[in-house]
Amino acid sequence: MLEKTVTSLDGAFQWLSRLALLNMLWLLTSLAGLVAAGLFPATSAMLAVTRKWLMEGTEFPTIKTYFRQVKQDFWKANLIGWILTAAAGLLYFNFEILLQWNAEFSIIVTAAFYFIVFLFLLVCVNIFPLFVHYEAGIKTLFKNAFIIGLARLPMTLAILVILSGMVYFSVVLPAGFLFFSGSLVSYTVMKLMLWSLKKIDVGISETEQVEYSG
Question: Where are the transmembrane segments (predicted)?
Answer without folding.
Answer: 25-49, 74-93, 105-132, 144-163, 169-190
